[in-house]
């Protein structure tokens, strides 16, 4: 785990992980550590669930053997989680309710729990990010 300083002075934590389902547990620990250190415990459960969904999508759809998880604090009341991978495929939220299908609705969960989420495309891949905010 590495801590970096953003130009705005806000801290961030990031970790490169293998593109395996087990990495979701490591990403959740990273979220818990960062949010506890920042005194944002009220966001831990929702943010841990969101990062699990983002990691799961990257595991399913990326191409290279690793992903990067980033947890940052853009403001005093807001946290951003992002998962970077080498795929340029933009994720889409599935709203169909194909009865027996157990997978494929992770972005609906992300959309429900976050203030906003999106994709930032890079020349070599993308970052899917989500913002959560503490209640006033």
Helix segment tally:
3
Helix content: 25-40%
Low-confidence stretches: 3-9
Roughly what is the average pLDDT, rounded to an integer?
88
CATH-derived architecture: 2-Layer Sandwich
Topology, number of strands = 6
Task: State Rg.
Answer: 14 Å
Query: Based on CA inertia axes, which overall geometry fits?
Result: globular
Q: Looking at this structure, what is the CATH superfamily?
A: Histidine kinase-like ATPase, C-terminal domain
**SS-based structural class?**
alpha+beta
Summarize the structure.
By secondary structure, this protein is of the alpha+beta class. It has 3 helices and 6 strands, in the order E-E-H-H-E-E-H-E-E. Helix content is 30%, strand content 32%.
Description:
This protein has a single domain (2-92, 102-133), classed as Histidine kinase-like ATPase, C-terminal domain (Heat Shock Protein 90), CATH 3.30.565. The chain is 30% helix and 32% strand. The protein is built from three helices and six strands. It has helices spanning 23-37, 44-61, 106-113; strands at residues 2-5, 11-18, 66-75, 78-85, 116-121, 126-133. It has a six-stranded antiparallel sheet, covered by helices on one side. A hairpin with a 4-residue loop joins strand 5 (116-121) and strand 6 (126-133). Helix 2 runs antiparallel to helix 3 (106-113). The longest helix is centred in the middle third of the chain and has 18 residues, at 44-61. 32% of the residues are buried.
């Amino acid at each position: 785990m590495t801590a970096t300083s953003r130009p705005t002075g806000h801290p961030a934590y990031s970790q490169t992980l293998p593109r395996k389902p087990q990495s979701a547990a490591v990403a959740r620990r990273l979220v818990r550590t960062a949010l506890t250190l920042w005194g944002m415990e009220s966001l831990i459960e929702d943010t841990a669930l969101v990062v699990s969904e983002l990691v799961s999508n990257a595991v399913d759809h990326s191409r290279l053997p690793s992903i990067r998880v980033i947890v940052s604090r853009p403001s005093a009341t807001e946290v951003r989680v992002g998962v970077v991978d080498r795929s340029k495929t933009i994720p889409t939220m599935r709203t169909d309710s194909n009865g027996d299908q157990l997978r494929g609705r992770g972005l609906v969960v992300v959309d429900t729990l976050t203030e906003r989420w999106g994709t930032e495309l890079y020349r070599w891949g993308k970052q899917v990010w989500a913002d959560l905010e503490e209640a006033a």
